[in-house]
Amino acid sequence: MIELLHPGQLARARATGALVGHILQSVRGRVAVGTNLLDIDRWTKAMIEEAGAESCYVDYAPSFGRGPFGHHICTSVNDAVLHGLPHDYTLADGDLLSLDLAVSLDGVVADSAISFVVGEAQPAESVALIDATEHALAAAIATAGPGTRIGDLSHAIGTVLEGAGYTVNTQFGGHGVGSTMHQDPHVPNNGRPGRGYTLRPGLLLALEPWVMADTAELVTDPDGWTLRSATGCRTAHSEHTIAITDDGAEVMTTPR
Ligand code: MG
Ligand code: MG
Questions:
Q1: Nearest ligand to the CA atom of 115
Q2: pLDDT digits (tens, 9 = 90+) for 115-141
């Protein structure tokens, strides 16, 4: 089902998005060498509760996972790229951390992810991966608007990622958002322009390019959730929830 939001719901989506953006930036500002991933989960839980919002992750139990996720944020480190299950790990200088967060506030969900390097070391390969996903996300947002087709977004993302020298995995990608976290339409991170569903005002979409340095193959941890590069290489992930407006697209998940 594809859900189009009315103006009242879009106003609520803006509030949810601002909260998600705020939490991610707050966590980013607080993370340092020595931070444990379980600290990040605890901070996130406290901020969600303080805002009167609900986690989309705690009870999330899709067919591919191993029971409910049970935590409030995804923390993916280095070769982990998606669905990183918070666990007892202390961040070291130069670790590449990807945070992914979705919450529901007043019945509307927003979903966003950021990647950054922890500490003083800024390895060139990690910075390049992060830049590629951020540029791919920006290219897709610039492409989005009424009349744009899903394939146009996929093509915009894939062109940037491939242009940066990466091979794109299309197993997991962007998606519709609304009263629930994952909805149609699916937005693959590569594809042909001019194909697929035509965007219209009121549609909320999570766009989420992610990339791995030297492979397109994922492996799953024994925890049943965390997805890593098959080669152990570094990875990155950037995501915003956007709303299609009458004349373009509005990013909902920036802190306000
Ligand atoms: Mg997400
Ligand atoms: Mg998402």
A1: 1
A2: 999 999 999 999 999 999 999 999 999
